[in-house]
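Most newcomers find our protein records easier to grasp once they have seen one. Read left to right, the backbone structure tokens trace the chain's path through space. Once this layout is familiar, the rest of the handout is easier to follow. The record below serves as our worked example for the rest of this section:


***
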Amino acid sequence: MFKPDLHIAKLILFISVFLLSSCSSDDDDSDSSDQTFSVALSTESFEVEVGEQFEIELTITKDSDVNVSYQLNELPDSGIVVVNSELTLVIYVADETLGNGSFEMLFESDTMSLTKTINYIVIANQDTTTDIDIPTIPAPTGSSDDYTIRFPSDYLTIFENESITFDIKRNYEQNDNIEETFYFNAYNVTGRVSADKSQITLKALDGNEDTYGEVTAVTNALGERHESKMYIIYFNKNRDLTTNESPLIALLDTDITISPYSSTKKVFDIYDPDSDRISYRILSAPNYIGTHINKTSTGFDLTINTIDDIDATDNELVLEVSDAYNTDTYTFSLVETTTTTDTTELSTNTPPDVFIEKNVAISLIKKMDGTETGIVAELAFATLDAEDDNLDVSVSSSNEDYTFRVEAPYIYVSADDLSDLQHDQITITASDEQFDSKLTYHLYISDNYAEFLGGNPNTAPFTDLPTSIDLLEGKTVEIDFTAEDFESHSFELGVYDINGESSASITGTSPDTSSSPITGLFTDLALTIAASSPSVALTTQVTVWLEDIFESRREHVIDVNIYKNSAPTLTLESDDITFDEDENVDLTLTVDDFDEPNLQPTFTYDTSKLNVVYSNGVLTISSEDLTANYTGGIDIYVVDEFGESDTVTISVLVNFI
């Protein structure tokens, strides 16, 4: 048994055993008449200590032209199983679970298959040292008590032969007493951690198929073990293109407005003139958010879950896209929304988990052959919510030709014809009304194209307008914006509102379709939105549409949150003062009105006895020359434009001197 130093083990690269047909060949000319082989293991039972690993030599005897594929037919009861890329070594890594267990390995060729069952016993660590110093470790920051390594996204996509480096963050300061281990379980992808443990570099090797894998980061602090996981989707290049044209992220605005302890969605598109497929990933993100990217029928959705308090000094999110040869990088600025909402209760809720149901499925990749019809796929998922919230599960896809039936743990995917499928995505969303968590499956047919058509489909014009605004009842807002067509096609735009609770118009160009189309880029535009005065607060919608001359259309929906006016409030340091005739008294006076932040109070008092000056939130009170003690008062009044008001009175006693 090989028993490695744990500090070295943190950097050992593993190869995923989760992929079906991971070592199979696509050579259709191989002779399948005699595809026999044999498999031998150095042992089929062993003991291993908690947290250690055990290596088993694997020997496959076959002719050189025999293709043998491998999969983990039955998962271990605990721990992790991996094999190397040459199929010569099986590695079992034990977790903290004691006792017996087993796992089953399935080997297949075109004409035969065989299974091997390996039994193991996980035993307690044999170190008998009794004098143990319990280390002191600073508590993690944020809302979680777990020491967590945080990836910039829950999954990424990478092309064959690409190398990418992304940041990793923590909710704690690195400490020698916190053990960290990284596992790279991905076929055709190797990984390494930087010397300072702030970044991970993945390198994708040659391959013939799309594959699935995982990066797992494990922390062990004070005996508590916590796993963080990021899925890896490996894209085979599909065709050997040579190109100097980079894909472009079709966005004008760099700001994303986020709210504490909630989900935000940013919609974007990608234009690439000479490639048929795009990989994408978040390279860096603050440790107080989680992210997910999925393709839709009209572009891409970037979902951001704000899971901890927002740090305004750490607000950059870096997105990279690639066509396997060239990349484009876009840096967003995360901006916290201005709100008076108390987030104390919100902070106790965590996002739901939606993940692969590994008793049923072992990959987010689903290879199709194009002949399927009716129910074309059964996708397995599971959900977990720490607070036991009711979860709403929905399904969307990058192709509108699919229909879905949800019967947990399955999503039944139906379609009439898959013969034109190249690569589609199906996304499962679990929502607890505060957070949206997503899991994306990838369906594909390898090399399913007739000819290269010269790039992605025509991209609809787009705009940098926001997707949500807050507007006081009866008020009007004007938003300057830019509209652009990435291919410089001529286009038209217009606006309509949904239900009459708001109205909208565009200035800078005539929005009606009879006007001359705009060409390429238009920067001198303004959208005016007027809110009604509903009886209760509500959300309505305004839609700006943009359509180019090739009828590629985008509808940009803006949620208009119309809120009711709230009365202003006066907050006074003291409402009862006594001072001598030759003294001044300073009192703090605050006027709070979310809608009219510059609202000023008025004062009523006996001007023959008192002087009152109000400046920058400070009320200064003094007296005139008196002939006797003075007892009186100062009435302070504030009223907003809706007639809502507040009043306070100061009782005043001035001693004659």
